[in-house]
Amino acid sequence: MKIIATSDWHLGNSFHGNDRLPEHKHFLKWLLEQIAEQKPDALLIAGDIFDNGNPSAAAQTVYYEFLADATQLCPNMQVIITAGNHDSASRLEAPRPLLTRYHVEIRGNVRKIWLQGESKDDDKTGGHWLYSFDDLIIPVTNEEGEEVIVLAVPFLRSDVVQNASYSQGINDFLRELTAEARKKYPGRKCIMMAHMYAKGSDIAKKDASEKIIIGGQEEVDLEGWNDHPDYMTCGHIHKRQHIWNTDWARYTGSILPMSFAEKDYTHGIDLITIEHGEEEEGKKTGKSKEWKVDFLKYKPQHSLRILPEDEEELTFKKWQKLINSELSERIDGELSDHFDYVMLKVKQEKLSSDDIKELEKLVNEKDAVLCKIQRIIPQLDLSTIQGSQHITSIEDIINRPPLDTLKEAFAIRHNAPMNERQEKMLSDLLTTSSL
Predict the structure, then answer these.
(1) Torsion-angle region of 200 (φ positive above 0: left; ψ -120 to 50: alpha; else: beta)
(2) Which pLDDT score, from 0 to 100, does residue 281 have?
(3) Distance from CA of residue 107 to its chain's centroid?
(4) 81 in Cβ contact with 107 (< 8 Å)
(5) Where is the Calcineurin-like phosphoesterase domain positioned along the sequence (predicted)?
(6) What is the pTM (predicted TM-score) of this model?
(7) Can you tell me the distance from the alpha carbon of 131 to that of 108, in angstroms, rounded to the nearest whole number?
(8) How confident is the model over 366-405, as pLDDT tens digits?
(9) How far is the CA of 415 from the CAs of 106, 388, 406, in angstroms?
(10) Do the beta carbons of residue 45 and residue 82 sit within 8 Å?
(11) Mean of the per-residue pLDDT values for the chain?
């Protein structure tokens, strides 16, 4: 049995103002080629199909055209799609009744059922809500009748996971769902697809685009989960990687770099192959003798380039030489289908504003699109500012002259000390306010 896993398409995304739909079409064309070659039994897409909850008509057209092509190309393939944190769960699920007829299952919302009873947890109406786990448990069967169970978990928002700790609520949910699937389909292999932030995930230190909540409030710790699914494929984190402290869970990664901080990420899809054994009576079961994951690498249509790659200080002439040597020329003045996205790291003290404008013009003459100029300003040595001091306690702040504190704050904010006129104005203001 073959299963393709992918996530984080972000259809409708723009990169520094550049429409990426042609890039997404490039990837989806490549994905269709992999489907035609591998003939998988299932395609799993684990969230962030779109870049926002209200995607453009053009982005939705690309999405539905892909589904139409994929289901026509491989009619027996089961497509399972879950919502990510960027998606509108309800919008994604809206065509579910129609798409189900074409072997496309969509799970955006977690349904709940009302259970009548008299337990101590019941409210005054004599019942309580339970998750409808059955809706998230989807059997996938190949032409030989071999079966694998897919647990389709959309991004779980805090209003769904009603627990004192969001992270613990997610853990409880995943464990209960897995236990229910094993109870309902004993002996079958289980693949879970989810969209979440797992503890220990490697994310970009700067310019991260996954919308991670600071402080680890959304971190899910999978360590110590003995009865975990046989395999888990996840979306949300854009770097392809194993989930920390597991050998059975993995992020497939985004299909395109979402920021220059992701310049060196690898992109592609996972091909999961399961070999099935047989029971003594000769009946086929879901028990696997071999579980293999191959990475099918995809090269995005446009490369990301950061110039210079190191922290070298360049003169204007050296900048010209670097751009001419690193970037290809346009053909007949037109961008090719594989132009580069470029970011320049410019140290302010080496170049004037006119120099920077000339560099912009030079880049735009190449087979490249200039997306960003990162202006690097040398860090100011605060010890050179009169009145600056090392703060070790609250008393140091209380006993410090207000003017010294404000001068240091100004220097940190503007990376330059106050001039005499600014200092006099501030001093006069402090004097006036104290009267």
Answers:
(1) left
(2) 38
(3) 19
(4) yes
(5) 1-239
(6) 0.82
(7) 14
(8) 999 999 998 876 655 545 555 555 555 556 566 678 888 7
(9) 51, 14, 13
(10) yes
(11) 86
Residue 269, CA distances (Å) to 14, 49, 233, 254 in order: 22, 14, 11, 9
Task: Give the integer Cα–Cα distance in Å for 396 and 85.
Answer: 45
What's the token pair of residue 73? 């190309």
How many angstroms separate the CA atoms of 189 and 142, rounded? 14
Q: What is the mean pLDDT of residues 316-344?
A: 95
Dihedral (CA of 211, 215, 221, 223) sign: positive
Instruction: Find the helix packing angle between 57-73 and 21-38, rounded to 10°.
Output: 10
DSSP 10: -
Query: What are the pLDDT digits (tens) for 274-286?
Result: 986 644 333 444 4
Report the run of H or E that residue 430 belongs to, with start and end: helix 420-433
Q: Is the dihedral of CA 284, 288, 292, 293 positive or negative?
A: positive
Closest CA to 417 of 372, 380, 390: 380
CA 135/CA 188 separation, integer angstroms: 17
Cβ(44)–Cβ(4) below 8 Å: yes
Q: What is the residue whose two structure tokens read 């170049």?
A: 351
Please give the structure tokens belonging to residue 191: 């693949």
From the list 421, 62, 4, 36, the residue with the least C-alpha distance to 193 is 4
On the question of pLDDT at 17 being above 50, the answer is yes
Question: What is the CA 423 to chain-centroid distance, rounded?
Answer: 46
How many CB atoms are closer than 10 A to CB 274?
Answer: 22
Q: Which class for 139: exposed (0-12), middle (13-18), buried (19 or more C-beta within 10 A)?
A: middle
Contact 41, 2 (CB under 8 A): yes
